[in-house]
Each structure stands twice: as C-alpha cells, then as structure tokens.
Amino acid sequence: PKTAYVRTKPHLNIGTMGHVDHGKTTLTAAITKVLAERGTGTFVPFDRIDRAPEEAARGITINIAHVEYETDTRHYAHIDMPGHADYVKNMVTGAAQLDGAILVVSALDGIMPQTAEHVLLARQVGVDHIVVALNKADGTGDEELIDLVELEVRDLLTQHGYGGDSVPVVRVSGLRALEGDPRWTASVEALLDAVDTYVPMPERYLDAPFLLPVENVLTITGRGTVVTGAVERGTVRIGDRVEVLGADLESVVTGLETFGKPMEEAQAGDNVALLLRGVPRDAVRRGHVVAAPGSVVPRRRFSARVYVLSAREGGRTTPVSSGYRPQFYIRTADVVGDIDLGEVGVARPGETVTVNVELGREVPLEAGLGFAMREGGRTVGAGTVTAVS
Ligand code: GDP
Ligand code: MG
C-alpha cells in the first residue's frame, strides 16, 4: 500500500525560469540531490526531468516536469518547463500557479532574450517573488565579470518592478553540486535558504468553491479517468460531487493523490490527481475545469486590459486592430478569440489597451483572471480580465 501524504509543512509551488541552456534542469536535479542527502527529498536525475514533450499512449502531451521536495520548513512542488513555449502556455496563463520563481541566469552569458521575457511575463501573471540563481559560477575565474552580470540582473528586475536591490542573488553551480562538490553543494543550500525566507507563504482561498484547471488526463486501467492539475482555490475530498466544465458532465471524486501519495483532502495550491467516477477518457481534455457544481458559469465575452508586447520582447512589429484573432491561453485552455478595440481602433506594440473579446467557445471566466495571447508560436500580448458579460 502507498504511504499517505501527511501535511506537516506549508506547501508552495515554485519553478525555474530563464534562458535555454542556462542550467534550469541541471539546477533542479541538483536541488533534489542536495535535499535527498538531507533526507527530505528524493533525488531525481537530470534525464528524468528533462524529457522532451512525450506523447503518452492515449495522446496526452506531457509538457511540464514536476518534482517534489521538502526543506526544513516547507513542502515544495517545483516545475521545470522543458521549452520556451511551455513557459508561455503554463506560466504566463497562471496555469502553473507559481508562488515564486528561481530565475536561472548563466554567469558566463548574462541576460539573454528569454531571461528578459520570462521576467516580464512573470510580472504580468502575478509572480511576486523571484530569487536569482547566478548559475555556472564555477565556469569563470573572474569574480568581476560575475559582479557585472549580477548588476545587470538586478537592473532588469528593477525595471520590471521586482525591487532588484533586495532580491536575493545566489552564485551557484548546479553542475558541480550534482557532482557532489562540497563548495557548490553549499551554494545550492544557500539558494534554498533564500527561497525559504524570501518567498512568503501566499494567501490560499480555502473557503472558496473548489476549482481545478485540467492540465493532463490519464487512464488508470481498471480504475477510470484521472485528471491532474493544481487546485486554484477551495478544497476537495473523496466523495465530493464535481462538475467538469467543457465536458458538460458531473461526477464524483473517488480517488485523490499528490505525487503518488493518497490524500483525504486536497486544497488550494496542491498539485493533485483526481480519479473521477464514470467519466469516459475522451470526454475530458486539458483546458477543461473541474469545479464545485454550479460555482462557475462558462462565458464567451469579456473585457480586459491587454499589454501588447513590443518587438524587443518577442512580440509583433506591427499594430493590432479590431478583428484580430489570436489564440487566448486562459488557465490551461487554448481558445481562439476575436478582439474589438472600440474607438481606439489600433494598439501598437508596447502599448496597454482596453479590449473586448469574444472567444470561439465558452470557458469559465472571472474578473482578475490572467491570460496570454499568442500568434504563430509567439506571445503577442498578456492581459487581465476586467469584466465578464
Ligand atoms: P536548461 O536548458 O536551462 O534546462 O539547461 P540545462 O540544465 O540543460 O544545462 C545546459 C548546459 O549547461 C548543460 O550542458 C549543462 O551541463 C551545463 N550546465 C548546467 N549547469 C552548469 C553549471 O553550474 N556549470 C557549468 N559549467 N555548466 C553547467
Ligand atoms: Mg531544461
């Protein structure tokens, strides 16, 4: 029998972000190794984290790697996203529900385009706390060079409202820590201490009606359909009745797990798998929402404040006008939508504007919800719902 999950410490969701090849996955593996040695985690090797998006037997795309570990004071779910597009889909939309992030910057390369884009997008989606890992600090004998990179990173963070002067910047080597070098093992310990102390415990809406955006759907032979994701708000227990919005059906939760451990009750912030009674596998998809029955109503129309990314940030070079139809990433859903800019008519890259949107299908919407707009594989905008009609 599996060991039940025992909630002894507060749970937080964090993730690594930053430019490709700056060492996010190596650092993630190193963190699990350091904590496994402390006895509060299980070592997850690099190649178990860094799997390319894989098609599972039933066509499920796995595009986020989660690992779990504990420090002395907290339980963390840590997300390491394999590719840049995964950041946009999962972080920008808030689907990853990060309470804080570790920004990984190679001390050898400094700030690169995706470093800046991830910081911008983290700000847009409300990730309020960033800790910096100046990685590959083993690779340069030149401390003054690292000092310059540190200044540059603090400056970037300040530009995006993160108070770059007070953000912890820790010089680490994920690679050397993974190899067991004591100096660099200590650097990863110092990074974890910075995360523990600098990222505050977020407010959890435990009393709100239960809601979980579906990230993945799996079938467990002989048991039924399982949906996975992070609980956005409320709590859910085995035996609770739920509604699956998008699939238009009701069901009962007959099983509940977090990282393979059964649990009695899942709560806001937890990363969980829910076993749903009598739900056909093909009826549920990523983008659907599991919620307390009657607690949310799906809608197609809303107004929003949208920031149109500048070309420098990877966005468009030309303005957007009414009738523009990008893809909207809302929670875990990906849906086309029509933009109406009203009297203003056009929005130039770099501008923030008010828009009315009509989506191609109904999704649960509410004021305050964040979303991203994408077109042809790039992010063109990031916004917040202001009203639903
Ligand atoms: P990601 O794309 O950000 O996940 O980067 P990876 O973790 O895949 O690392 C990219 C490359 O950088 C690999 O060849 C790693 O071995 C190397 N690397 C990662 N961390 C370090 C480090 O701390 N020091 C050095 N010298 N190389 C590193
Ligand atoms: Mg990686």
UniProtKB/TrEMBL annotation:
<feature type="binding site">
    <location>
        <begin position="135"/>
        <end position="138"/>
    </location>
    <ligand>
        <name>GTP</name>
    </ligand>
</feature>
<keyword id="KW-0479">Metal-binding</keyword>
<keyword id="KW-0460">Magnesium</keyword>
<comment type="subunit">
    <text>Monomer.</text>
</comment>
<keyword id="KW-0547">Nucleotide-binding</keyword>
<dbReference type="InterPro" id="IPR050055">
    <property type="entry name" value="EF-Tu_GTPase"/>
</dbReference>
<dbReference type="InterPro" id="IPR005225">
    <property type="entry name" value="Small_GTP-bd"/>
</dbReference>
<keyword id="KW-0251">Elongation factor</keyword>
<protein>
    <recommendedName>
        <fullName>Elongation factor Tu</fullName>
        <ecNumber>3.6.5.3</ecNumber>
    </recommendedName>
</protein>
<feature type="domain" description="Tr-type G">
    <location>
        <begin position="9"/>
        <end position="203"/>
    </location>
</feature>
<keyword id="KW-0963">Cytoplasm</keyword>
<keyword id="KW-0342">GTP-binding</keyword>
<dbReference type="InterPro" id="IPR009001">
    <property type="entry name" value="Transl_elong_EF1A/Init_IF2_C"/>
</dbReference>
<dbReference type="GO" id="GO:0000287">
    <property type="term" value="F:magnesium ion binding"/>
</dbReference>
<keyword id="KW-0378">Hydrolase</keyword>
<dbReference type="Pfam" id="PF03143">
    <property type="entry name" value="GTP_EFTU_D3"/>
</dbReference>
<feature type="binding site">
    <location>
        <begin position="80"/>
        <end position="84"/>
    </location>
    <ligand>
        <name>GTP</name>
    </ligand>
</feature>
<dbReference type="Pfam" id="PF00009">
    <property type="entry name" value="GTP_EFTU"/>
</dbReference>
<dbReference type="InterPro" id="IPR004161">
    <property type="entry name" value="EFTu-like_2"/>
</dbReference>
<dbReference type="InterPro" id="IPR031157">
    <property type="entry name" value="G_TR_CS"/>
</dbReference>
<feature type="binding site">
    <location>
        <position position="25"/>
    </location>
    <ligand>
        <name>Mg(2+)</name>
    </ligand>
</feature>
<dbReference type="InterPro" id="IPR004160">
    <property type="entry name" value="Transl_elong_EFTu/EF1A_C"/>
</dbReference>
<dbReference type="GO" id="GO:0005829">
    <property type="term" value="C:cytosol"/>
</dbReference>
<comment type="function">
    <text>GTP hydrolase that promotes the GTP-dependent binding of aminoacyl-tRNA to the A-site of ribosomes during protein biosynthesis.</text>
</comment>
<dbReference type="Pfam" id="PF03144">
    <property type="entry name" value="GTP_EFTU_D2"/>
</dbReference>
<comment type="similarity">
    <text>Belongs to the TRAFAC class translation factor GTPase superfamily. Classic translation factor GTPase family. EF-Tu/EF-1A subfamily.</text>
</comment>
<dbReference type="InterPro" id="IPR000795">
    <property type="entry name" value="T_Tr_GTP-bd_dom"/>
</dbReference>
<dbReference type="InterPro" id="IPR004541">
    <property type="entry name" value="Transl_elong_EFTu/EF1A_bac/org"/>
</dbReference>
<dbReference type="GO" id="GO:0003746">
    <property type="term" value="F:translation elongation factor activity"/>
</dbReference>
<feature type="binding site">
    <location>
        <begin position="18"/>
        <end position="25"/>
    </location>
    <ligand>
        <name>GTP</name>
    </ligand>
</feature>
<dbReference type="GO" id="GO:0005525">
    <property type="term" value="F:GTP binding"/>
</dbReference>
<dbReference type="InterPro" id="IPR041709">
    <property type="entry name" value="EF-Tu_GTP-bd"/>
</dbReference>
<keyword id="KW-0648">Protein biosynthesis</keyword>
<dbReference type="InterPro" id="IPR027417">
    <property type="entry name" value="P-loop_NTPase"/>
</dbReference>
<dbReference type="GO" id="GO:0003924">
    <property type="term" value="F:GTPase activity"/>
</dbReference>
<dbReference type="InterPro" id="IPR009000">
    <property type="entry name" value="Transl_B-barrel_sf"/>
</dbReference>
